C-alpha cells in the first residue's frame, strides 16, 4: 500500500499577479485609497496630511481598518 499524493495542477492567469491597468481586488483587511489597497500601519500623505491605516475599535465588521490623521 503506497501513500501517493494526487498530482494537482492549478492554472492561474497572469492577471492575478498583475494589477497594471486594473483595479485591485477587494481586500478584507485593508484601507483603500485611489483603488490601492494598504495594510494596517501603512502611512500615506494626501495634500500635506499624513494618514495611517488603523483598526477602528468602534466598528465590528469584516473591514475594521480606517484611515486616521496622524501628526508629523
From TrEMBL:
Superkingdom field: Bacteria
InterPro entries on file: DUF1496
The protein's name in its UniProt record: YnjH family protein
Start and end residues of each stretch annotated as Disordered: 1-22
Amino acid at each position: 500500500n503506497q501513500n501517493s499524493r494526487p498530482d494537482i495542477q492549478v492554472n492561474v492567469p497572469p492577471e492575478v499577479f498583475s494589477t497594471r491597468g486594473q483595479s485591485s481586488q477587494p481586500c478584507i483587511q485593508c484601507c483603500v485609497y485611489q483603488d490601492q489597497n494598504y495594510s494596517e500601519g501603512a502611512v500615506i500623505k494626501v495634500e500635506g496630511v499624513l494618514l495611517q491605516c488603523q483598526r477602528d475599535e468602534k466598528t465590528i465588521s469584516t473591514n475594521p481598518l480606517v484611515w486616521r490623521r496622524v501628526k508629523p
